[in-house]
Amino acid sequence: MRRNRRGGVIETGRVFLFWGRVRGGAICAIASHPTDAGGHISLLDGIIRQLHGKSSEIEQGRPQVIGNKLKKPQGDGPQYTGNLKPFRPLFPNPDVATIAANFWPRRLDTARFPVEERLFETEPGVRVLIHVQRPSAGSRGECVLVHGLEGSSSSKYMVSMAQALLTAGYSVHRMNIRSCGGTDFLCPTLYHAGLTTDLHAYIQSLGQPVWLIGFSLGGNQVLKLAGELGPPAAELLAGVCGVSTPLDLAACSKSLLEPRNRVYNWHYLRGMKQRLRRRQAALGERWIASRELERIATLWDIDDRVTGPSFGFRDAIEYYSTQSSIRFVGGIGVPCLLVQAKDDPMIPFGLFEGREVRGNANIRVVSTDHGGHIGFLARGEPRVWVDEVVEEWIRG
Question: Does 1 fall in a domain?
């Protein structure tokens, strides 16, 4: 398709790049599998029309807070009141919100907040990379951020959250899950959604209670760890927060099998296959034969045949059933915040309305009608609404 002033589509082999001009001359780009071209042309059109002020009316509702706001959670910590600005989504369409957020530029002031690279050994033969930044004045506390599936410390949601917390006076540790962030060969294993040993080892080394903030798969890890630790977690954790968290791994993996979600399945699967190919080039066909790897077509299949068995799980069902944070949230004994959009294309919202979540007085759920998966781009400032929510919760 020929480019034009408002937007276009460029085919590059097996990938389509969708782009369009926005106010100020910025470019918004999306990469997708060619079989999704028709639907994502419409997606792009939605982005462009909204940014040029031609979108349909947007619902402007106040975010809902689920939880008992009168009872004080067990232990010490901030009391979240839900006094938030209304979330006015920039993109009401959940797919537009999800994909646009993945490309939306974020700013991290590394001149004001210099970055320290820290390689930390969590167990013999396993090292993880953490990017640490501190405010110039005294720190108000330590915040550890954990990214999602196939993300890294440089993922855009990690960057903007770090900037918000640093500006508010908190030290920030952007932690790469093992083998992520260019550290494929700093450990002999892969990673999985319930792997909490590395995170536990690192926060123990900090010598004071920290705020744990996880995104998507990272959210599953931080919630699972808090639940595993139970009430004694207060010695290590000031509080724990999950943003767009797949509480039930099986339910969320199944949602990626739906036709509407094939672009997300393709995106995650591509990253995981690339990682396995890099490891195979150096270590050989340790987890799966290259020919078999190429035949895998879904995230469920790769968890069933590679990720799960590599950690001793029989299959994806055993992996998901034992490592889902929904089995552990009832044991969380510190203040906990869950931020979730009801229209998240990958995570059924019903997971946040069950007894596992509602039965724990320490947990607060802030839900919005729109926002997508780790989207939450708002009209006006602050653009990334979820950053302000988490910062306000931490400040109490």
Answer: no
For the question of whether the overall pTM of this predicted structure is more than 0.85, the answer is: no
- 384: helix, coil or strand? strand
Tokens 């509080």 label which residue? 239
- 352 in the same domain as 311: no
Crossing angle for the helix pair 94-103 and 156-167, nearest 10 degrees? 70
Q: What does the alpha-carbon distance between residue 75 and residue 73 come to, in Å, rounded to a whole number?
A: 6
What is the count of structural domains for the chain?
Answer: 3
Q: How far is 330 from 231, CA to CA, in rounded Å?
A: 11
**The amino acid at 227:** G
Tracing tokens 């509480």 back to the chain, one arrives at: 247
Q: Residue 375 CB: number of other CB atoms within 10 A?
A: 32
Domain span at residue 23 reads: 7-51
**pLDDT tens-digit map of 93-113:** 999 999 999 999 999 999 999
Reported as a single tens digit per residue, the pLDDT across 212-261 is 999 999 999 999 999 999 989 999 999 999 999 999 999 999 999 999 99
